[in-house]
Structure formats: C-alpha cells, structure tokens
Specification:
By secondary structure, the chain is an alpha+beta fold. Helix content is 30%, strand content 22%. Helix 5 packs antiparallel against helix 9 (383-392).
Length: 581
C-alpha cells in the first residue's frame, strides 16, 4: 500500500517517486537481467532493438529494447507482482494491464527527450488514460539526464504542442520543473498528462531504466455489445446533425446566427469526424459563424475512460462542446488536430491543403434543445465496427452505448432476463466492467454463447467483434502470450475481466475456440480472490486453457478480423439541404 503522502502527491501532481520500492535482491536481479537483455540478438517478431548515433564521427549504439516482458519470466513475474500492480491500481483507481514495455539504455552521449506529454501519442489506440511505471537500473543524476517533471496541478489537458509532439517553448516552465533524482531500487510512477523531459547523458556511465506503461482493463463489455446488437442492429449508425440559426449569406460564406450540433449519442466521434464535418461545411461554402457553437446533448467527442472519474454532467457536456470547437476552428488546432488531419488525408487520398476550418465568433455553449435548419448530417461507422474498436482495446467508454439504451440498470435487467439469472448471480454497477460487478463463470459462458449466436444471425464472425490473441493488440494478447504466438497463435477469440477489490478480486477470461475433436468450445475460466496477483493467475488460466485445447485434439487457427478501423473509416457526411453548388 502507498502511504497517504505519496498517494496525495501523485493525485495532485500526476507523478510520485517511491524510494526503496524494490528489495536489494530485486534490484540486483533487475541489474543482472538488464545486462542479459542487452545481449539478446535481433529476433524478428519477438523483442525489438533500437539504436542511435552519437559523437563525432557518429557511432551506432543501443538506445532501447521493447517487448521483452513476454520473453523473460523473471521480469514478467516481478512487474506483475502484487506490490507493482497494487501501487498502480491505487494510483489509477482500478486494476491495470500492461500496454507497452521498454528499457531505455541511455549510454554515454545518449539523447534526451524534449518536454512532452505521453497522452497524445496513445489516442489512436483508444487509450486516453495510462500510467507509466519507471524502475531505475542506474542512479538518476543531473549529469546523466535524469527525468524532469513539471510540478503542475494534475488534470487531463493537452498542452500547446509543436508539430513533432513536443511542448511549445516555455510551456513546461509555467510550473516549477523538478529533477527526479533516483537510485536503483526506487520506482517512479507518472500519468499520461504530466509534462516531463530528460537531458542528454553527459556522464561517462549509462542511465538505464525500465519504462512499463499500463492501462485500465472486461467480460461485461460483451453483455453491452450483445444488448446493442439486439436493440439497434449491427448496421446501425449514429447521426449527428449540424444546423444553423439565422440567415446564411452564401456569397460571403457567413452564417449570421449559431452553428447548432444536435447530438445523437455517437459513442465514437473524434477529431477525424469533426474534420470531415468542417471539410464538408467548407465545401458548401460555410466559412464563418457570427454566433456560437451550440451543442445539444447527447454528444461525445474523444475518450474519457468510462466511469473512472465521475464528472458533473454540465461540466462534461461543456468539455465536449469545446473539444468540438477546437477541431472545427483552424486557429485553435494543436499538434493532435494537425497530425490527425494529415493522417486522414493520407488514408483518403486527399491533398492536405487547404486545411478545413470555420471561424466561430461566439465560443461554445450547451443547450437542452434548439430550433435550427439542418445543414449536414454526420453518420458514424456501423455499430459492429464501433463494437470491434471498443472490445479490442477494452475501452471503458463503451458505457456511452449503454447510456443510450438504459444505462447499467437497463443492461443488468436485459442480461438477467436473457440469461435467466437472479441478482445474486449477476449484479452490475457499470456497463464497462469497472467498479463493482459480479457475474458467475457459468453465466459468462451463456453470455458468450448468446453473443456468438446473435453475431452469426447478423452474418458476423466472432473475430469481427472481439479480439483474437495473435491478431489484435490490447489486453488479451498481453495477458496470454502463449495464445498470441507459437502453436496456439490465433486460435482463441475472447474477452478478459479484472477486478482487484470486489469480493477479494477476480481475473476472468471468457471466449471460444474451435477444437479439432469436439468442434466449437465456449469457456470461461476465473480465479476468485486473486487480489493484486492478476499476472500470476493469468498464467494459471492460460495453462488450463492450453491443457483443455490439447485434450480436445488441438485448436484450429482463425482468420484474423478485418484491420482495425479508424473512427472515420466508414463514416459518412451527407448534405441535408439542396446543395448550393
């Protein structure tokens, strides 16, 4: 358990140093293992080695190695130990899963990193919130380029950036910049938003450190997906209407009133989608709005990580309105918007000039209703595409889908009726699996069967809706490495679930595979009272599943699902008035 002072520092500033976190033996193991891994040869498809050139003339030297945890039992055990996962869960407020691992070697002359935030680099993965666990192998000093943190008041805010993702000059210095001096055996935890940097290693020794990035991880999402498919159908698209009040001077490209957005509860509307809208409005001749951007909920934009941080609804709605304003007004763009526009153009074969944008004089506000004349309608990706994005990344913002259908109470009622279960067997507080949720393993199997049957009737393969280990990124591949590569690669499609404190904790894995002797097999394996030992019990579950597959003659490899789409991949923008051009 973190002491109250350390936890308070993390919550206020977004980072904390934990002196002496590892024992002397663990510290020596880390140093020994680091030297071992540095000697690992290039092996395609396993770990990745990266190099840099330093000095004059430039000399090639090792910079970092990534993806080593699945291939090193000692490190896998240490970084999934109760004290590591427990510290992270305390800071995060819920259990976490490993998302990315690397060792930065930072040998003499090794480069530093300019001031930046980590969060913008992960938006394409549907992961807005994550934590980094840093374990120094060598002392951190000013001379060897130690980590430096802004002592800001922690919040989820993307700061002004340069095109390369670094923070603009002077931004990090708005707050006190603190060098994080550390020793081997210490641990440093920091969130995705805290501004940080490091300098060049000007010392004669190395400054090696482990960086492990974790994100929150659930079987309940399958229930939400089933409910949505039943109620809405796989091809359902969410519509968001963009309309205007007042007169429209088409010659001047100016709307004298407001630009009104009538939300339709699209759970997967992002910068890309807003840029599609801005481009179409520009094409119609709309370039300026004299009034305000008026948003009528339900309207979502970007990620929030589900129920992790309950927010005032009014504040939340206004935040969404300003996110949209930032995307529509070219003058408000930051690095994320520019990078997204260029990627969007590359995918669609467009020229990236001119950049779309609308000048909105009056800012943004939220309204319960508004009378306005429709201009265009944005229609989302089909529901089955949206569900695949949410399930592969175990994205907790899937609760937005449930909110439009009746919330967690409605979901619980639907599942109890569908599965014939009482409240003692199925009890939900969220539609994402966060917080306190209960479902028996037998009901989880029934849920998977129902979900697969509904998918089949809709003409969808399981891998078009759920992650396949060995094909897709996300928690399944990380938690079950022997299903992600080797003889059983691509055999299992399924969903994980993790709770640390409910009923002493539980880790579960539910899914299906096609056995050679018995045909399709649906399973759920759960480890009750697992507490903070998720990694250990995941290994036990994986072994059980591999034995089950072997008893049934092995399992057939699946086709991978379609390439993971972007939020705009199948989105449509249609003109809602007679096209003036």
């Amino acid at each position: 358990m973190l002491d109250p002072v350390a936890l308070d520092h993390f919550r206020r500033h977004g980072y904390v140093r934990l002196p002496g976190f590892f024992t002397a033996d663990e510290t020596r193991d880390l140093q020994r293992w680091t030297a071992e891994i540095a000697e690992w040869p290039e092996t395609p498809g396993r770990w990745m080695r990266y190099y840099e050139r330093v000095g004059q003339p430039p000399v090639k030297q090792l910079a970092r190695i990534e993806n080593f945890v699945p291939h090193h039992p000692g490190l896998a055990a240490l970084f999934s130990s109760p004290k590591v996962l427990g510290a992270l869960a305390e800071c995060c407020g819920e259990p976490v899963v490993l998302f990315k691992d690397k060792i930065n070697f930072k040998l003499p002359g090794g480069a530093g990193f300019g001031p930046h935030q980590d969060a913008p680099a992960y938006v394409d993965f549907g992961v807005e919130h994550h934590l980094t666990f840093m374990a120094p192998v060598d002392p951190f000093t000013r001379d060897n380029g130690c980590l430096e943190m802004s002592n800001w008041e922690s919040r989820h805010e993307t700061l002004p950036q340069n095109p390369d993702g670094s923070l603009r000059e002077g931004v990090m210095e708005r707050w006190e910049v603190v060098p994080v001096l550390a020793e081997p055996g210490d641990a440093i935890l920091f969130d995705a938003w805290v501004p940080h940097r490091s300098g060049v290693n000007r010392s004669p020794g190395s400054r090696r450190a482990y960086y492990l990035t974790f994100n929150p991880a659930s079987v309940v999402k399958v229930g939400t997906s089933l409910w949505a498919l039943e109620r809405l159908g796989p091809d359902h698209r969410y519509s968001t209407v963009f309309a205007s009040t007042g007169s429209w001077d088409r010659a001047a490209g100016r709307i004298a009133g407001d630009l009104v957005v009538i939300g339709g509860g699209d759970p997967d509307f992002h910068i890309e989608n807003a840029l599609l809208v801005a481009r179409e409005l520009n094409r119609m001749g709309v370039r300026a709005v004299d009034g305000e951007l008026v948003v009528v909920p339900p309207f979502w934009m970007g990620w929030e990580n589900g129920s992790e941080e309950p927010r005032d609804p009014g504040e939340r709605n206004l935040d969404m309105a300003y996110r949209l304003l930032t995307a529509l007004e070219r003058g408000r763009w930051k690095t994320a918007q520019l990078r997204t526009w260029r990627a969007l153009c590359a995918r669609r074969g467009w020229h990236d000039e001119p950049e779309p944008g609308i000048s909105i004089r009056g800012g943004a506000r939220v309204a319960e209703a508004a009378e306005a004349s429709p201009l265009i309608v944005h229609r989302s990706n089909p529901l089955h595409v949206i569900l695949r994005r949410f399930n592969v990344y175990s994205n907790n913002d899937i609760i937005r889908i449930a909110d439009g259908l009746g919330g967690p109470e409605g979901l619980a009622g639907f599942l109890r009726a569908r599965l014939g279960a009482g409240q003692d067997l199925l009890d939900l507080t969220t539609a994402s699996g966060q917080l306190s949720n209960r479902i028996t393993a037998r009901l989880a199997v029934d849920l998977i069967r129902e979900f697969l049957a509904v998918a089949e009737r809709a003409g969808l393969r399981p891998e078009e809706l759920l992650p396949v280990a060995g094909c897709d990124p996300g928690p399944v591949a990380d938690m079950f490495p022997h299903l992600a590569e080797g003889p059983q690669e691509r055999t299992v499609v399924g969903k994980t679930g993790t709770l640390v404190t409910t009923d002493g904790g539980v880790v579960a894995f539910a899914g299906t595979f096609h056995s050679r002797d018995r045909g399709p097999i649906t399973f759920c394996v759960a480890a009750p009272r697992s507490g903070y030992q998720a990694r250990r019990w995941r290994s036990v579950e994986e072994s059980w599943l591999l034995e089950l597959m072997a008893e049934m003659g092995g399992a057939d490899a699946r086709q991978c699902g379609p390439e993971l789409p972007h939020p705009d991949t199948m989105a449509e923008v249609a003109t809602a008035i007679a096209d003036p051009q």
